[in-house]
Input
Amino acid sequence: MNMTNRNFVRGLFIMLIALGFGGAALRYPIGTLSRFGPGLFPLMISGLLFLVGLATVIRARFTAPEPLNYNFKNILIILVALCGFVVVSHFLNMLLGIVFLVFVSTLAGTSYSVVRNLKISAGLIAVAYGFKYLLGLNLPLL
Output
């Protein structure tokens, strides 16, 4: 298979991510299905993700190849957004970090909408509050 086929490379990348998370899950006790340990759920999810990647690779064999191209400007924008999220979250708070991440990362898209960015930010902030107050994670939201 040609490594310039976007669908093929996408499937390989998904499989690689699944293997990485599956390998990390194996560091924890798996347990049994009746009394499972902390490693079973991530292992099951990574197994399903691996199957999605495998299906993508197989499907790429039977569909017309899509050319793989790299837009280094967009890669740089995403890296700046991720690094900025970490810096803003560390020195200010995570809520501002989330807003920064959304507004900067969407510069890499084909269209830019402030209203859409505000909606995405609100949704991610709601998820962060859910993680903090419903799941008890220690997130520096304020």
Q: What stands out?
A: The chain has two domains: 6-62, 72-135. The longest helix spans residues 40-62. Residues 6-62 form one domain. The CA atoms of residues 2 and 8 lie 8 Å apart.
